[in-house]
Amino acid sequence: MSNIFQNLAGRTAGKTDWRRPEILLLVMAAAVPLSFATWQSLVNNFAIERAAFTGAEIGILQSLREVPGFLAFTFVFILLAIKEQRFALLSLALLGTGTALTGFFPTAIGFYCTTVLMSVGYHYYETAQQSLALQWLPKSEAPAILGKLIAMAGFASLVAYALIYVTFEALHLDYKWVYAAGGAVTCLIALAAFLLFPEFKAAVPQHKTLILRQRYWLYYALTFMGGARRQIFVVFAGFMMVEKFGYAVTEITMLFLINQAFNMVLAPAIGRAIIRFGERRALTFEYIGLILVFVTYAFVENPLIAAVLYVIDHAFFAMAIAMKTYFQKIADPADIAPTAGVAFSINHIAAVVIPALFGLIWLFNPSLVFLLGAGMAGISLVFARMIPSHPQPGHELIWQKPVPAPQAAD
């Protein structure tokens, strides 16, 4: 494992101290999947086998899970009371706690409550992590390093899914002990990171108020559509595998293992490709691919083809690096933290509504859910084509000529 970690972290000449911002980001990236991957890989089977959920209840659960993401704009106010780095680690511990408790409450209300607790930690952590990464990483290297973070998360997920497969197949452990183990390890890593790493300073102090700037509207639009697209995969693609094709826990876990193995290989390459080809081309490729995947989801009848689509669909998530680095290139550096919270809230407007609404659509026409997803990917494609080849402050849209960056007051 140490060799894998060194390869993902990279070894830069002159950087002999491992207590660096990029290493902390890698450590935190490894901690998240041990909880979230455990929760995600078991959620559909646990919901059906223990809580007797239908499509309607799973939609409600997933909508509740996204509510903390919708409230992520409050992140900027929390920073008035606690440093951003510490808050990221606290959120990581909360994610682990919610996951660890999940299996002990196998009822609808219990599952809803532990899911919300887990989700509060997860979404606040993701908001803080995105903000810290864009503040700490240089623009020229950000896509490549963000790719390494995804690869590290993929490696940790691979470990988590492998352990889940073994515990269910060989040890026959109950859900509650698997959930408890995954959550506990995340909490321990958060504690170790708090004790071992110093507090890192951002180059530019961050605004501590809510910020919505007109010149960021394309980033907001892409973020909104990204939240809608994610729900089709997270909620309904996985649920289809269990409900329509009868995939068991071990089979779903094997799919996740394949997904994360691809992530480990592809994410760093995608990061390098974004540096070479730019955000516009990367997002164009993603959305064309998603249209094809979602249309095929709507009519698939073969469980093997469905599994292949599931892996391809997941591989496209690494392309989201391009949205982050597009914003990094056009942003006032002092806007990064408050905009991270606002962007997560925008991302989750659709995420709060779609699972419950589409869960009802699922009851009478599952194919329509995926066709609507293809339509969303088409809208995203139109937005992606508006990104300039070389975005910068004052040149946020393709039809704009580069002009001096606007003042912070906007």
Shape: globular
Q: Estimate the mean pLDDT confidence.
A: 83
Low-confidence stretches: 1-6, 8-14, 405-410
Q: What percent of residues adopt helix (DSSP H or I)? A: over 70%
What percent strand? Answer: under 5%
Number of DSSP helical runs: 15
Q: Strand pairing plus helix content: what structural class?
A: mainly alpha
Task: Give the N-to-C terminal Cα separation.
Answer: 47 Å
- The radius of gyration computed from the alpha-carbon positions, rounded to a whole number of angstroms, is 20 Å
* Order of H and E elements: HHHHHHHHHHHHHHH
Query: Sheet with the most strands?
Result: none
Structure summary:
The protein is mostly helical.
Structural description of this entry:
The chain has 410 residues and is mostly helical. Helices cover 74% and strands 0% of the residues. The model is unreliable at 1-6, 8-14 and 405-410 (pLDDT under 50).
Keywords:
disordered C terminus, 410 residues, mainly alpha, disordered N terminus, globular, 15 helices
Strand and helix map with partners:
Blueprint: H1 2-9, H2 21-49, H3 55-70, H4 75-78, H5 84-102, H6 108-136, H7 142-171, H8 175-196, H9 217-243, H10 249-277, H11 279-299, H12 303-315, H13 321-330, H14 336-364, H15 366-384
